Amino acid sequence: MATATKVKKKSGSKINIQPLGDRVVLQREDSQETTAGGIVLPESAKDKPARGTILSVGPGRPLDDGSRGTLQVQVGDRVLFSSYAGENFKVGDDELLLMREDDILAVIE
């Protein structure tokens, strides 16, 4: 009897995600492993950081006259965003976040 096997894709493969409207795709920064005092934090005690890097942006929100509004952020910008903003999803081994531009609070320069 033959069995089916799954072929694993290499984790280095790039998948292009084009968000719609005024949405952006970003990758959250890694959380801190230790406190300022040197205490190592377990996974359950780590807070998810509200900082990340934008990987992809949408074309902009449709305006009343039929044109598209431009986004204030660009690919590669480091941003601060609301803690509970966006939807988490995984692409391969990467955990990404899809959110509206309105949920972004500031650009880090």
Structural overview:
The protein has 109 residues and is mainly beta. The chain has a domain at 23-34 and 46-108: GroES chaperonin (10 Kd Chaperonin, Protein Cpn10, Chain O), CATH 2.30.33. Helix content is 0%, strand content 31%. It contains no helices and six strands. It has strands spanning 23-28, 51-57, 78-81, 87-91, 94-100, 104-108. It has a six-stranded antiparallel β-sheet, with no helix packed on it.
Shape: elongated
Largest sheet, described in full?
A: 6 strands, antiparallel
Query: Total helix count?
Result: 0
In terms of DSSP E residues, the strand content is 25-35%
- Radius of gyration, in Å, reads 18 Å
Structural class: mainly beta
CATH topology (fold) name of one domain:
10 Kd Chaperonin, Protein Cpn10, Chain O
Low-confidence stretches: 1-11
Q: How many strands appear in the DSSP assignment? A: 6
